[in-house]
Amino acid sequence: MAARSKSSKAWLNEHVNDHYVHQAQKDGYRARAAYKLLEINEKDRLIQPGTVLADLGSAPGSWSQVAAELAGEKGAVFALDILPMEPIAGVSFIQGDFREDEVLAQFESLLGDRLLDLVICDMAPNMSGHAVTDQAKSLYLCKLALDFARNHLKTNGHFLVKVFQGAGYTEFLAEMRAAFSSVQTRKPGASRNRSSEIYLLGRNKR
């Protein structure tokens, strides 16, 4: 077996000793990311009983798990990812590439004529390690998600999206501000300090 690189050893050590990883295993969540949404929701009350929402980039499903629990039987969660996702009670899931019109049309048909209270997006591209390329790919997904939110949110609906600070971030923030009455930044405790990820919360779609 090839020797692990220092960076992969560091990641493994961090993962093994990660409080949120252990907590996720204990609480039955599929990934530590669940606690990011739980913390944001505790502050901002985005998901309540009866909320109808879309989860873009949902696999392995921890955000959908949280959303289904919080929205309850009167709510509805529609999820989409290019990767497979094991079924979750209360979640309608489509596997496909969000960038393809055919997949988007299939997802829209799942929504029917329903307008959404909320769109959440924890999507990230497969990282190549080339910072400029990865940032461009990530922003492209964010813009697609923003377009989806503009088209499918109710007036005064909300949009929560993960972005990476870097080239194009300021321009994307301006697009968010044009679409929503207010835009706030969130950096939950479960988000690793060394990560450039941040969450933008667009409130009250215009």
From TrEMBL:
Keywords: Cytoplasm, Methyltransferase, rRNA processing, S-adenosyl-L-methionine, Transferase. This is Ribosomal RNA large subunit methyltransferase E. It catalyses: uridine(2552) in 23S rRNA + S-adenosyl-L-methionine = 2'-O-methyluridine(2552) in 23S rRNA + S-adenosyl-L-homocysteine + H(+). Specifically methylates the uridine in position 2552 of 23S rRNA at the 2'-O position of the ribose in the fully assembled 50S ribosomal subunit. Gene3D superfamilies: Vaccinia Virus protein VP39. It is found in: Cytoplasm. S-adenosyl-L-methionine binds at residues 61, 63, 81, 97, 122. GO terms for cellular component: cytoplasm. It is an enzyme of class 2 (transferase). Belongs to the class I-like SAM-binding methyltransferase superfamily. RNA methyltransferase RlmE family. It comes from the Bacteria.
